[in-house]
Amino acid sequence: MSPADPPRRGGPISRRAARRRAVEILYEAAQRESDPVTLLADRVGSVEVDPIADYTIALVEGVGARREAIDELLAEHSQGWTLDRMPPVDLAVLRVGVYELLWAADVPDPVAIDEAVGIAKELSTDDSPRFVNGVLGRIGSIADRLRAVL
């Protein structure tokens, strides 16, 4: 760490905190109608009080790179919900969850789903955890087949 680098407060950032931060960045980008990777780059380049974890960066960049495929899967498996009708926080949680299910090889499928449900409990409505669990559960049940073709 050089003298110009801001000091890190606290210990290492947990994966849960990194996921939550990724959801917050994706949500903010959607509200601003901007690209989440650009928003992330602006955050990383600025002097922030809270550092952005490498895992947050990986999630935002991963979701950004695969957003079209992720959104197609969400639209197909959300049973009666269009993406436009979903609460924006739930959509951000689901995007991170689908990315982890299909492209984060070091995250077991049940962990990806449980973490997404937990973040939905923290950030969204009372009905959101059940909705997130249902959508990700349906995608998770065919994740091996999807990984083979994506």
UniProtKB/TrEMBL annotation:
An example Gene Ontology molecular-function term: RNA binding
Alphabetical list of Gene3D superfamilies matching this protein: NusB-like
Entries under InterPro entries matching the protein: NusB-like_sf (IPR035926), NusB_fam (IPR011605), NusB_RsmB_TIM44 (IPR006027)
Pfam families noted in UniProt: NusB
Listed GO CC annotations: cytosol
A single BP term in Gene Ontology: transcription antitermination
Keywords: RNA-binding, Transcription, Transcription antitermination, Transcription regulation
Ranges where the NusB/RsmB/TIM44 domain occurs: 17-139
Family under the similarity heading: Belongs to the NusB family.
Role description: Involved in transcription antitermination. Required for transcription of ribosomal RNA (rRNA) genes. Binds specifically to the boxA antiterminator sequence of the ribosomal RNA (rrn) operons.
HAMAP family referenced in this protein's UniProt entry, alphabetically: NusB
Protein name: Transcription antitermination protein NusB
Lineage: Bacteria, Bacillati, Actinomycetota, Actinomycetes, Pseudonocardiales
